[in-house]
Amino acid sequence: MQRNLRLFLILILLPVGAFAQTGGRTVFNFLENSSSARIAALGGAIPSIADNDLSIAFFNPSLISPVLNNHLALNYTDFYQTIQYGDAAYSHTYDKLGSFVAGMQFVNYGTFTSTDEAGNNIGSFGAGEYAFSVGWGRRLDSLFSIGADLKFIYSSLEIYHSYGIAADVSVTCFPDSRSSLSFIVRNIGRQLMPYPESPIQPIPFELQLAYSNLLKHLPVRYSIVLHDLQRWNLRYDDPSTVASESVTGEIVKQDKLTNILDEGMRHLVIGLEFMPTKNFTVRVGYNHQRRKEIALDSRASTVGFSWGFGLRVKKININYARSTWHLNGSPNYISVTANLSDLF
Q: Which domains, from first to last, does the chain contain?
């Protein structure tokens, strides 16, 4: 029975990239993950930064452009315990068809001990999930670009398997040469074959609005992302934390304005990039929802904050980030991107 218990715990913990208490409602939650160090340093939500970074265009297909022709992106995240996830993407442009990106996402939950009903060790098993995708993007004019991708999903949890299909669609507006605004519809699709003895479940559909701007007189770019716009209330109401009057015992009603502000802030992710030179960038980010849901009441520390840096070394871009999820530690994000035409 312990084997089934482990599988149940895996299913509960699937949304490693989701936001704590609102997770667990869908399958294939690894699709929400981005192992890009640049995205992680900026708070973890997909930004609208239109430059030569394929690791961003891989998740925002309207940013796929001829500028990324023959680019390669490799991203890896060393998450908690033995959980690891990452992605790889390659972009190529065809004159008449537009620009394409082919890639793969994966999450490896590690190796688990398999036991029988009596608790005897009878071996081990693994668990992992994968998504293979093809994306397309085209610049319509000086103001707009569009893009979409199609993902084929496979999940393997010991002897239990599931398949699915999903798509992302996005449009980006360029008000001027320094700013961009993206509307992203993520994970439109469904689970095609459910796990045995389980009904078909939804996948993590999401609406995002992202804006970025490079300041005119300073080497600073800021990013603002509004995520999970498909539902307003992202709060988790824990009955065990309800306060009461010490004398009367009556429940203390929370201020409505405070609740509304908190609910609104949980949709917000803020990121900042400081670029003192062309070859070095410093990044910081803040994710309010992550802080409110995962930080401990007794010690919030830096939960919800993230930081990182980028280096360009001999035509190769190397990015690193740490994002604080819990006081137990911070995952490490490493990304390498390059233009293969420059290298060869």
A: 2-343 (2.40.160.40)
